[in-house]
Amino acid sequence: MPCVLPCCCIGFAAGQFSSSPVQWVSCPTYLISGIPEKAETSQLDILCRLVASPSLVDAAHHDYGDRLSTYLLAACELLGPYPYTRLDVVILPRSFGCMGLANPNVVFLSPSMLCGDGSMAVRLAHEISHAWFGLLIGPRDWTEEWLTEGFATFCEDIILGIAEKWTPSDITERCGLKAMIRWQTLSAELKNTEQSLQLMRRDQDKSVEHVVTAGGRESVVAQPGTVVHNALRPEKRFMQMSYLKGYFLLYHMACAVGYEAFNQLLKSYASRYQGCLVTSEDFFGLFFETFPETRSAQFSPEALSKHWLCSGSVPLDINYLLSGNQLLDQALQHVEAWQAIDKVNLSNQRKRKKVNRASLKPWETVELLELPDQLVLLLEGLLDQRRLTHSTLQQLDRKYHFSIRNAEIRHRWCELTVKHR
After folding, report:
1. Is the CB of residue 25 less than 8 Å from the CB of residue 72?
2. What pLDDT was estimated at residue 17?
3. Which of 20, 266, 302, 303 is the most buried (most CB within 10 A)?
4. 64 close to 118: Cβ distance less than 8 angstroms
């Protein structure tokens, strides 16, 4: 590309890899070398490949072979022309310490993203969206990491919905499930972290820069907004504050204008600031320039900065926003059903009552939850219980076969079994 990209990282992988068949995807792209400079965008065939160790390449192709091109096209539909000429998705060995990592032209994924049913493909959507947020556009100050991770987290659901051809009601319902899962994770982090780790920016940030004047004398100059706070705190690596709090800030802004209008704003933002380093004020400014009627004392650049970026709170009523979500209600009803089943199991255990194996057991009458995200919410709800009997745990696994589900579900199932071992 003719402009300098504010890439957040450049990585490489060394080892023995195999590739699935190459795909060529025709999609719009920004100006690149070899395309006449008069055109701002052009239609180009993007080379897409899945790369993995020989033992994983078939599993990678099964989960992502058809999704790679459709997710890329869905991302272009949402965010505009793709910034690069190729997209290689590399499944790295288990030693890879992240779920995913985006680089120019290549995305790294953990092998835990392979689950046989494609239910972890949302991570691919997340990493593809980093081609715009993190690579094409970057934060001027890395304390504002939410400008990359918050945007990618928000966009992953929309890209998934476009690619999987969800109806508008499906998008509302399924995005609501994801929102509740993220809310529970964020709430737990807010309860268990100190205030300084909950901020996405500090207005008073200043760093010191030594400048040599013409007379040879060294002076100290304060440069505002150039300190990455808590960068040396090891626990920050495991936190999702920038991802989730940033996501809910964008969710809050989208609710004010509607998803369709907000999605169009994202495309305008990517177009206006391509190749630039930005601040939160740049995005806030574009938002209120586009939707001036939404501005008020409680909803303005200053208010958003004060209450979201520079505060540990999240001023959002998630229960009100998600009221009436049928998929969410089903999951919560299953939590209550299994709480009742556990009470029966506990009563039988205390009475040492023998259960007639021929009779229908309460857990067998519970309907199956169809979506992986509903199972995650079921397990999250049961994790809040002070105790569960071993019988209940056995019945849960018989019903849902948690041990062969995707990594998100197995992780929570492991937590549940360890807690109630």
Report:
1. yes
2. 81
3. 266
4. yes
- Beta strands 41-52 and 86-91: pairing type? parallel
CB 186 within 8 A of CB 245: yes
Structure tokens at 262: 């907000």
With CA atoms as reference, report the closest residue to 111 among 177, 236, 17. 17
Strands 18-19 and 138-139: unpaired
Active site residue: 127, 144, 156, 408, which one?
Answer: 127
- What is the structure's pLDDT at 361? 66
Helices (H) and strands (E) in the chain, counts: 14, 10
Q: What confidence score (pLDDT) does residue 358 get?
A: 43
Tokens of 99: 């779920």
Q: Which residues, 6 or more positions from 327, have their beta carbon under 8 angstroms from its beta carbon?
A: 173, 174, 176, 177, 371, 373, 374
Q: Residue holding tokens 């790294």?
A: 108
Instruction: Identify whether the C-beta of residue 174 lies closer than 8 Å to the C-beta of residue 373.
Output: yes
Range list of H helices, 168-324 = 168-192, 241-257, 259-272, 280-290, 301-304, 318-321
Residue whose entry in the numeric block shows the structure tokens 């304060």: 222
d(CA 383, CA 10): 38
**Residue 173 appears among annotated catalytic residues:** no
421 HSE (CA, 13 A, CB side): 6
Residue written as tokens 């009458």?
365
Write out the two tokens for 64.
């992502």
| Amino acid 366: pLDDT | 76
- The reported pLDDT for the residue numbered 226 is 55
Which pLDDT score, from 0 to 100, does residue 224 have? 46
Predicted local confidence at residue 196, as pLDDT: 76
pTM, whole model, 2 decimals?
0.86
Those residues of the chain that have pLDDT short of 50 are 1-4, 31-39, 204-215, 219-222, 224-225, 358-360
How many other β-carbons are positioned within 10 Å of the β-carbon of residue 362?
A: 15
Paired strand residues for 100: 109
Listed in sequence order, the residues at least 6 apart from 187 whose beta carbon sits closer than 8 Å to its beta carbon are: none
pLDDT number for residue 235: 60
